[in-house]
Design the sequence.
């Protein structure tokens, strides 16, 4: 059977990872690898964090009665809290927890729809609660063929991880996003009231386990830890790489760059914004991004070609000049004329290859393209 939960987060508590951890600590049956999934980030009623959790459990139908009781006593009371968002300009919805149980793993298709767009409730199985049932079911539907791991520990009181331990973990082969390479700042500990001490990411389960052990040993007291399989860093939210010829460029309010009146490079997207600013009409790029409210939010750009039109260089080494409309070009020094009015030259971008926002501005789902 597949069990999922989502949308329990609020300012007063209910961090979904901790709620799930506690549920697994008390569930009276064996279970498989816990899974943390990130879904479509623009879903209207998502609370902060945007993580849904699921696990395969090995039990019979008697678990339903146990889950009923657990739901009423431990999860339902979290309903209706307004969450504290990192993005204060975003409309806040009260948490609306959901829990789902399926005898058969839900259709994989449901996961792909839920990670790339808005979906309605999944039908079937046993379901408890409200909107959170969507993320809970979508997490159950994730097949995880492409996965990374995250080791999470929850704090008892203060949030403190030793810098030395962070350095050791950062240098392990297989961890990622431990530090921001621009300023060396640690990225594993969240800010704000959430109960997470740290979340350390890795490309293998063994490395995630090892890193978690090192960090727990060198942190302020933790109430527990667990390693989750996740869809973070997989790029699952991006359907395809597309190409684009620039037809217009505009700097809009907030310092964002708007290309072709549809594609936004956000002001805080670092080099991605720099490339967008550098582009000229006629340039060709490849891009990845997510559509929301008729705009594509860019998450990666690669300049394919950018040409500059220039007057030809004379054999004496001087650049020729126009003699006037339809008059051709001529060397200002030796007065030699040319049959060719223009030559093109490649412009080279300030950064070549794929350019993404800085690591701390990327989505949890974003895959590193370099
Ligand atoms: Zn000349």
Sequence:
């Amino acid at each position: 059977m597949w069990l999922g939960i989502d949308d329990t987060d609020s300012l007063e508590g209910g961090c979904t990872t901790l709620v799930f951890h506690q549920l697994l600590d008390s569930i009276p049956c064996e279970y498989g690898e816990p899974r943390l999934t990130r879904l479509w980030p623009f879903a209207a009623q998502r609370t902060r964090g945007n993580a849904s959790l699921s696990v395969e459990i090995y039990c019979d139908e008697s678990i339903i009665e146990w889950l009923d009781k657990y739901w009423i006593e431990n999860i339902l009371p979290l309903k209706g809290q307004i969450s504290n968002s990192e993005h204060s300009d975003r409309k806040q919805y009260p948490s609306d927890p959901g829990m789902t149980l399926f005898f058969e793993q839900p259709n994989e298709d449901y996961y792909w729809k839920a990670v790339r767009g808005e979906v309605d409730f999944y039908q079937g199985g046993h379901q408890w609660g409200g909107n959170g049932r969507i993320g809970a079911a979508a997490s159950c539907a994730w097949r995880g063929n492409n996965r990374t791991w995250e080791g999470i520990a929850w704090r008892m009181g203060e949030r403190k991880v030793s810098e030395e331990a962070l350095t050791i973990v950062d240098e392990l082969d297989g961890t990622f996003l431990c530090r921001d390479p621009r300023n060396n700042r640690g990225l594993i500990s969240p800010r704000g009231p959430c109960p997470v001490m740290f979340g350390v990411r890795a490309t293998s389960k063994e490395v995630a386990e090892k890193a978690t052990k090192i960090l727990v040993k060198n942190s302020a007291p933790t109430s527990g830890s667990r390693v989750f399989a996740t869809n973070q860093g997989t790029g699952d939210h991006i359907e395809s790489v597309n190409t684009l010829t620039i037809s217009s460029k505009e700097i809009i309010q907030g310092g964002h760059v708007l290309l072709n009146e549809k594609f936004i490079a956000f002001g805080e997207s670092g080099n991605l914004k720099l490339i967008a600013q550098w582009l000229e009409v006629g340039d060709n790029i490849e891009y990845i991004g997510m559509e929301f409210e008729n705009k594509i939010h860019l998450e990666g750009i690669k300049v394919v070609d950018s040409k500059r039109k220039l007057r030809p260089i004379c054999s004496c080494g001087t650049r020729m000049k126009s003699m006037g409309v339809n008059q051709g070009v001529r060397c200002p020094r030796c007065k030699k004329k040319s049959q060719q009015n223009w030559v093109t030259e490649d412009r080279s971008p300030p950064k070549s290859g794929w350019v993404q926002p800085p690591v701390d501005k990327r989505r949890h789902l974003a895959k590193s393209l370099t």
In short: The chain has two domains: 2-230, 242-306+348-361.
